[in-house]
Structures are given as structure tokens and as C-alpha cells.
């Protein structure tokens, strides 16, 4: 049987700069991607229906004919996207809100679908002004959660550098998944916001474990790190496994919310592995061996 | 005797919680509230007492603000609300007194007519001479509350079980009305919300030995103003004050004058001489029966073609109608015996007309899921949940390869989810996709913490005494507590911000973390101690 053995990393072979270089490079790259997105599209990510406004119809694929074909001809407006859900014989058709958001757009579209003999199983409509409100609220929520977490971490450890290490790693854990979403073409939805908040909660766990092991336990630095790592890597891998399974199964069944949460958390947790055991370890080592002495 | 209980109280607590959850999940009496005319077993969805939200059961959710503008901090100069409304409405071409609301308690004046723009409203307020601090979009608290009760009334009337109406406030301070109706399509719900029932007042009068009815003596549009139900100031009973429009285009008769003529013609003044003269209309037969030997004419309140109430008339009012002076004001009161009845009549007269319109297409959102789609989602999320648990279990087995560590870990994590489901049943919280995501997140964090406990306890060789175990367990718990606190902090904004389904996700994640830290993780510690302690 295969067994998971958490590898022992020989940290002494690398300098702090070398250790921190990889996660910092990823962070800079992620920030550059997000910055590029802002310049190119005016938003840090591909905003989903909930943040732009529009209508999403779920059309049942119950005809034997070509539903895709039918969808192309059924609507007066060109759909912005048409997605087929493999596990559920359903096609999801999305219309972004028009500038001149006509009254009762959802009704019109549903009527057009009905007229074309398509069965709509679900209709979602979000008005643009409501959507921009939601975007503001979501941004505020993430900022508030991050701030609350930072304050709590500083209160728990009461030392600057190790606390900063946790907060910096959490920041990077948030930024990298957002950049990954942009590259993978995943839209920012309420589900991904929930996932980002969850990352704040989840990713801090392994950082706290590491800090606790190094700062509050007896024992030599490298021994403490490898002890925390054994536990922490197991933890994170377990969560990643759960999230990947959730993402894969949910995308087969076309449950967008669960798929998004799964993907974002999986990416975020991978980023966390890197940030915790490269960036945090190097910051802690600097603090332990040089920072305290000064 | 007591020693084993004291030794293992954490495990016992977990067992008690699991048993409690079973009772909440399967026991009778914890099921969903049955709708009128529905038995408790019919209200149950599936074999458990769990309730499913729209995502998982099908239905429609509409979230929209009420359209209108409100002037705040208005100096009403002691004028009556009616006078203020009239003065403001007079300055607006496209609104009548009915569209202008005055709430002295909030020092607010609102306009609910869709076509009135903000600048028109400001101009009208200025022209009417009332000073105000500002004009904001939206309506007053009182109108929101009233709208909610009208919508709730409509939902109840339509017999839609499980429908709900809530008011939510967004981060920008704007208020939204959130309507959720399970099992109904989008169009049905919007129709229900926008539908205006027809309400009219008929006059029934004795015709020989039979009863004749003059239809539509007053119709809905004839009312200038419909007041809220009020308790009668003398004696018992309640009433709804109404004002009938007494102006009309040139050449035609105003509704008030027409109504006055009809009442006078049917002999109300002769019939109602004293307070003892009552209306004897029998709604079942549709005939007027004799009261104290007289068969008096009656006013009938007809909603959607059905007579919902009948009234007699106050002698003074009947006289003023006969004399032709009543139409100068057009005021009268529809009296009833019970206050609640007066409330119903007031609602009926507004006839489904919401006090302010829901702006669904402009600033609202709506989503709708068919029942079959919901059912599919229910199956799928069960599959996703089970597979995720398997993934976690697989990882744990691979890592520890020791069933006596891994098995209790998985059992404990499952107990945590089970306890959460019990909570959901107990609270009657409807399960949504977002809540399912919360459950999966809870399994994730739960197992993380159990891994911390197991590693910590086994880290420094064999556990050969209780003291050693306890000290290691306490150390592990510091990390778990800190991690739980950050998760709770991170999730708390979602619980309060109005971000749709996500509050369910946040609530159940936080609840799961709390159950984990307070109940299941200490219990796992005890189990592990029993298994590992070398005696």
C-alpha cells in the first residue's frame, strides 16, 4: 500500500533568500496577472453574473435533437456563454446584462425559450445595479475578514515578525488563487468569495501550527519545523483531497457553487503549502537566529 | 459508579449530542411546520426532518427594493398627514394622494408612484413648502412593513406553504424585500406579487321578497385613500377609514356623488335609524335576512368576485348621504366587529396592491429552480458529500496506517456532520447548496484538527500516563483553539452581510467549528487516550 510520508526538507542547504524567492516570485507573478486584468478589463477578475448583472437560464436537454443548435436560434440576443453540464442533461445559457437593461429581460428570454420548445429548469436574474452593490459588499467582507484575522494573529503571538509571516502568507494565499482563476477562466462569483474567506480561515491553521511549534515549544528550530510540517502537510493534503473531489464531482453534476469553492480552496491550499514551508519558515528562521539577537 | 462517567464525560457528551441529533432528525414533532390543510407527514420532505431550501427543493427567490423616494427630516409644521399628502400630490402631475405617504413618526414623506423622478419629487416638496433634510431612494419603514404583511398575506392566501418574506439591508443602507416561495416558478411568483385583486363594494337591497344587488357601486379606483385599520374610539369594534374621490372630469359624475345617489336610492337612511338596525346579509344564501323584523339594505365588500364582508350603515352617515352633503368630503368608515377583520379589509381594499412596487427588473434579482432540478441537486450534493468524506478518510488511512488512530478520527468527523444536520433539523434551517459546502468545509477543518491532536499526542514516544497525555492534549488544543478563532473571525462578515446564500455557508461553518472545538475534538482526545495510554 502506498503511504504518505511527509518528506524531511533539509532547510540548512538553502539560505533565507533562496527559500523566500520562490513564494515571492509567485506572489509577484500573481499580482502582475491581477494588475494586468485590471488594466485590460477594468476588474481584478472575470466577474460572474452575480457581480455584473444578467440572466442565466438552465435549459433541459430533453430533446433528442441538437439543443445547442436550437439555443443559437431560440433567442433574439446572442448568449454570452452556453455551457453543457455533462452529468445532468442540462445546458446553462448566460446573458450578461445589456447597457440598456430592458424591462423583464428574464421573462422575454424564458418566453423565447418556451416558444422554441426548450424547457427551462431554472432562471436567475441579477440587475446590474444590484450586482455592483454585491461586488462592493463582497470586497468589504473579504477586507473585513482579513483585517479581523490579522488582528487576531497579532493578539495570539504578540511578536511582530512571526505574526507578520502569518499575515503575509495568508495574503499570498488569497492572491494566488485569484490569479489562477483568471488564467483558468473561472469567474468570480459569490461561491468563490466564500472560498476566499474560507482560505483565510484554513490557511492560517498550518501557519499557526508552525509558529506555535517554533515559538512556544521547546526544541531545536529544525526539529520544531519538521514536527509542525509532518502534521501541517498531512492536514493540508487531507483538505486538498476533499476539495479536489468536491470540485470534480460538482463540475460533473454542474453545481457551480460547489465546483468553484472546491477549485479555489484546492489552489489556495497548494499556495499555502508553498508559502508556509518556504516563506514562513525563512522568516521564522531569520527571526529566531538573527532577529531576536538584534 | 460515578468514576467512569467522570472519566469519560467528553465521550458521553458526544454520545448525548449524537442521540439528540437523531431525535431532531427522525423524531416526530421536529418536522417542518405543516401548511394549513397539510398533515405533518406531508410537510416532511423525505425520511428525515430536514428542510430543504430553494436550491434543493425547487422554488423561486425574488430580492428587490421597493421603488419610491423618501424625503427625510421633513418639517411637517403640525399639518395632518392627509393635508401634507394632498399638498405634495397637488404639485405632482403624475401622482395622486394615494401615491404620497406621510409618516409623522419618522418625519418622512414618500412617493411610491414609479413615474415620479427624484427631481420632480424634490420640486414638489419645495413647491408645497415643506422643508426637508434630504431625499433618498426607497420608502419608509412603515411602508416596508406594510408591504411585507401584504406579501405574506398573498402567500398565505395562495396556500403556498413555506413561503417567506424578509427585509434585508445591504451594505449601502438600501433595504431589500426578499421573497422565497418553494415549489413555484419565477413567473407564478412575480404574477402573485404584481397581481392586483379586484375589490369593489356592491349594494344589496331587498327586492320584493328576494334580494337584488347593484354591482360595483364603488370600485377600487374610486378610492382616493384607504386608511389602516383602527380601533373604534367608542365602544368595541374597529374600522377602516376610506375616502372616495369626489372630483371627476367635466360633465361626468364623481364616484362619491354616484355612490351617494345609489345609497340614497336604496333607502339606507330609512332603514338605519338607530344603532340597533343591522345588516342581515347572509353570505351563504346571498339573501338579506330580517334583523329585528326589518330587511335592511347592505353594503357588500367583494374581493375577486367573492363577498368577504357585509356592512350596515351608521345612521348619521346614511342621513348625510340622503341629504347629499356626504360627497363634499367623501369620507366614511367601514366598520367591523374585530380589529383583525378590519385589518383584512384594509388589506383587501388595497387589493393586492402593494403599498409600493417591487423593482424586480430594475434593481432586483430573482432566481428560480424547478422541483426536479432541485431534487437532482439534492442527490448530487449527497454524492459529493459522501465522496469528499471518502477522500478524507482515504488520506487519513494512508497517513497513519493504524486503524485505531484513523478509524476514530473518521467516526468523530462524521459525528460532527451528523450533529450539524441535527442542528439544522432542530432550527428548521433549510439546507441549501451553500450549507452543503459548509458541511464539507467542516469535515475538512474537523479532520485537520484531529490530525493535530493525534500527531501531538503521539509525537514524543509512548503515552505512559494520564498526565503526559493531558499536557500534550492541552498543547494541541491551543493550536486548535487559535485556528478555530481565525475561521470564525474570517466567516463572521458573511453571516451578517447580505450576500445571498452565503450566510448559510458561514453560519454552518462557524457552527461546525464550535461543535468541533467544544464537543467532538475533546471527545476524540478521550478516545485516543483510552486507546493509546500504556497502562
From TrEMBL, chain A:
Q: Output the InterPro entries linked to this UniProt entry.
A: SecD/SecF_arch_bac, SecD/SecF_export, SecD_SecF_C, SecF_arc
- The residue ranges crossing the membrane are 20-40, 138-157, 231-255, 261-278
A single Gene Ontology CC term:
plasma membrane
A Pfam family hit:
SecD_SecF_C
The chain positions of domain Protein export membrane protein SecD/SecF C-terminal read: 118-288
Locations listed in the record: Cell membrane
Q: Which domain of life, per UniProt?
A: Archaea
**Biological process annotations from GO:** intracellular protein transmembrane transport; protein targeting
Topology in the membrane? Answer: Multi-pass membrane protein
Recite the UniProt keywords alphabetically: Cell membrane, Membrane, Protein transport, Translocation, Transmembrane, Transmembrane helix, Transport
Q: What SUPFAM superfamilies does the annotation carry?
A: Multidrug efflux transporter AcrB transmembrane domain
Tell whether rRNA processing is among the UniProt keywords.
Answer: no
Q: Does the keyword Transmembrane helix apply?
A: yes
| Coiled-coil positions | none
Stated family = Belongs to the SecD/SecF family. SecF subfamily.
Instruction: Summarize subunit and interaction data from the UniProt record for this chain.
Output: Part of the protein translocation apparatus. Forms a complex with SecD.
Free-text function comment from the UniProt entry: Involved in protein export.
This protein's name: Protein-export membrane protein SecF
Organism, per UniProt?
Answer: Halorubrum coriense DSM 10284
Higher taxonomy: Archaea, Methanobacteriati, Methanobacteriota, Stenosarchaea group, Halobacteria
Automatic annotation (TrEMBL), chain B:
The way this protein sits in the membrane is described as:
Multi-pass membrane protein
Primary location group: membrane
Question: Which domain of life does this protein belong to?
Answer: Archaea
Q: Which residues cross the membrane?
A: 12-31, 377-398, 405-427, 433-454, 475-496, 502-520
Please give the Gene3D superfamilies that the UniProt record associates with this protein: 3.30.70.3220, Multidrug efflux transporter AcrB transmembrane domain (1.20.1640.10)
The entry describes its oligomerization and partners as: Part of the protein translocation apparatus. Forms a complex with SecF.
Q: Which family does it belong to?
A: Belongs to the SecD/SecF family. SecD subfamily.
- NCBIfam families on file: PRK08343.1-1 (NF006215)
This molecule's function is given as: Involved in protein export.
What is the protein's given name? Protein-export membrane protein SecD
Q: Which organism is it from?
A: Halorubrum coriense DSM 10284
Q: What is the lineage of its organism?
A: Archaea, Methanobacteriati, Methanobacteriota, Stenosarchaea group, Halobacteria
| Gene this chain is encoded by | secD
Amino acid at each position: 500500500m502506498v503511504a504518505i510520508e511527509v518528506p524531511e526538507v533539509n532547510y540548512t542547504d538553502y539560505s533565507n533568500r533562496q527559500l523566500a524567492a520562490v513564494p515571492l516570485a509567485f506572489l509577484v507573478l500573481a499580482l502582475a496577472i491581477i494588475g494586468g486584468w485590471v488594466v485590460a478589463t477594468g476588474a481584478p477578475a472575470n466577474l460572474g453574473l452575480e457581480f455584473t448583472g444578467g440572466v442565466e437560464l438552465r435549459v433541459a436537454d430533453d430533446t433528442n435533437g441538437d439543443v445547442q443548435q436550437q439555443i443559437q436560434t431560440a433567442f433574439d440576443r446572442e448568449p454570452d456563454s452556453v455551457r453543457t453540464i455533462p452529468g445532468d442533461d442540462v445546458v446553462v445559457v448566460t446573458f450578461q446584462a445589456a447597457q440598456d437593461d430592458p424591462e423583464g429581460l428574464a421573462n422575454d428570454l424564458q418566453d423565447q425559450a418556451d416558444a422554441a420548445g426548450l424547457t427551462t429548469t431554472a432562471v436567475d436574474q441579477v440587475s446590474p445595479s444590484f450586482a455592483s452593490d454585491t461586488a462592493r459588499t463582497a470586497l468589504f467582507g473579504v477586507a473585513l475578514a482579513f483585517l479581523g484575522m490579522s488582528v487576531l494573529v497579532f493578539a495570539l503571538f504578540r511578536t511582530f515578525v512571526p505574526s507578520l509571516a502569518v499575515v503575509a502568507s495568508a495574503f499570498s494565499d488569497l492572491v494566488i488563487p485569484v490569479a489562477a482563476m483568471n488564467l483558468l477562466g473561472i469567474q468570480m462569483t459569490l461561491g468563490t468569495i466564500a472560498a476566499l474567506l474560507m482560505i483565510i480561515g484554513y490557511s492560517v491553521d498550518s501557519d499557526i501550527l508552525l509558529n506555535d511549534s517554533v515559538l512556544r515549544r521547546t526544541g531545536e528550530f529544525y526539529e520544531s519545523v519538521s514536527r509542525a510540517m509532518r502534521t501541517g502537510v498531512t492536514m493540508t493534503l487531507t483538505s486538498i483531497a476533499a476539495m479536489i473531489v468536491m470540485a470534480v464531482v460538482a463540475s460533473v453534476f454542474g453545481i457551480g457553487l460547489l465546483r468553484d469553492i472546491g477549485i479555489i480552496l484546492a489552489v489556495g491550499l497548494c499556495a499555502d503549502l508553498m508559502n508556509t514551508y518556504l516563506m514562513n519558515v525563512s522568516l521564522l528562521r531569520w527571526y529566531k537566529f538573527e532577529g531576536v539577537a538584534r | 459508579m460515578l468514576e467512569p462517567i467522570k472519566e469519560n464525560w467528553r465521550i458521553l457528551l458526544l454520545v448525548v449530542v449524537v442521540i439528540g441529533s437523531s431525535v431532531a432528525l427522525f423524531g416526530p414533532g421536529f418536522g417542518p411546520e405543516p401548511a394549513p390543510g397539510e398533515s405533518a407527514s406531508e410537510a416532511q420532505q423525505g425520511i428525515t426532518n430536514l428542510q430543504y431550501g430553494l436550491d434543493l427543493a425547487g422554488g423561486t427567490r425574488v430580492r428587490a427594493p421597493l421603488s419610491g423616494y423618501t424625503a427625510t427630516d421633513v418639517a411637517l409644521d403640525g399639518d395632518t398627514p392627509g393635508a401634507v399628502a394632498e399638498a405634495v400630490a397637488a404639485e405632482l402631475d403624475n401622482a395622486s394622494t394615494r401615491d404620497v405617504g406621510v409618516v409623522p413618526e419618522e418625519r418622512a414623506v414618500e412617493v411610491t408612484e414609479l413615474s415620479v423622478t427624484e427631481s420632480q419629487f424634490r420640486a414638489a416638496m419645495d413647491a408645497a413648502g415643506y422643508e426637508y433634510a434630504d431625499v433618498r431612494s426607497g420608502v419608509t419603514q412603515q411602508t416596508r412593513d406594510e408591504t411585507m404583511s401584504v406579501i405574506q398575506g398573498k402567500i398565505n392566501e395562495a396556500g403556498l406553504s413555506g413561503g417567506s418574506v424578509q427585509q434585508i439591508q445591504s451594505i449601502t443602507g438600501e433595504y431589500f424585500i426578499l421573497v422565497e416561495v418553494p415549489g413555484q416558478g419565477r413567473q407564478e411568483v412575480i404574477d402573485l406579487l404584481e397581481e392586483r385583486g379586484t375589490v369593489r363594494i356592491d349594494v344589496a337591497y331587498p327586492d320584493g321578497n328576494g334580494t337584488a344587488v347593484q354591482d360595483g357601486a364603488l370600485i377600487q379606483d374610486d378610492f382616493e385613500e384607504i386608511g389602516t385599520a383602527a380601533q373604534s374610539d367608542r365602544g368595541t369594534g374597529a374600522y377602516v377609514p376610506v375616502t372616495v374621490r369626489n372630483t371627476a372630469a367635466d360633465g361626468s359624475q364623481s364616484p362619491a356623488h354616484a355612490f351617494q345617489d345609489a345609497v340614497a336610492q336604496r333607502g339606507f337612511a330609512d332603514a338605519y335609524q338607530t344603532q340597533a338596525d343591522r345588516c342581515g346579509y347572509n353570505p351563504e344564501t346571498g339573501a338579506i335576512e330580517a334583523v329585528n323584523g326589518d330587511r335592511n339594505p347592505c353594503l357588500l365588500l367583494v374581493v375577486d368576485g367573492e363577498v368577504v364582508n357585509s356592512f350596515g350603515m351608521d345612521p348619521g352617515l346614511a342621513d348625510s348621504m340622503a341629504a347629499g352633503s356626504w360627497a363634499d368630503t367623501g369620507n366614511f368608515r367601514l366598520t367591523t366587529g374585530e380589529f383583525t377583520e378590519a385589518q383584512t379589509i384594509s388589506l383587501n381594499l388595497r387589493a393586492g396592491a402593494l403599498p409600493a412596487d417591487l423593482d424586480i427588473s430594475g434593481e432586483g434579482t430573482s432566481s428560480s429552480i424547478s422541483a426536479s432540478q432541485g431534487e437532482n441537486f439534492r442527490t448530487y450534493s449527497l454524492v459529493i458529500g459522501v465522496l469528499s468524506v471518502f477522500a478524507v478518510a482515504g488520506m487519513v488511512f494512508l497517513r497513519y496506517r493504524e486503524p485505531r488512530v484513523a478509524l476514530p478520527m473518521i467516526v468523530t468527523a462524521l459525528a460532527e456532520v451528523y450533529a450539524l444536520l441535527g442542528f439544522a433539523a432542530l432550527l428548521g434551517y433549510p439546507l441549501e447548496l451553500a450549507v452543503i459546502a459548509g458541511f464539507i468545509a467542516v469535515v475538512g477543518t474537523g479532520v485537520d484538527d484531529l490530525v493535530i491532536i493525534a500527531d501531538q499526542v503521539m509525537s514524543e514516544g509512548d503515552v505512559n500516563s494520564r498526565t503526559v497525555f493531558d499536557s500534550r492534549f492541552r498543547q494541541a488544543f491551543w493550536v486548535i483553539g487559535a485556528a478555530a478563532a481565525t475561521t470564525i473571525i474570517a466567516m463572521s462578515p458573511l453571516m451578517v452581510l447580505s450576500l445571498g446564500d452565503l450566510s448559510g455557508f458561514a453560519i454552518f461553518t462557524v457552527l461546525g467549528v464550535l461543535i468541533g472545538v467544544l464537543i467532538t475534538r475533546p471527545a476524540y482526545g478521550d478516545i485516543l487516550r483510552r486507546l493509546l495510554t500504556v497502562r
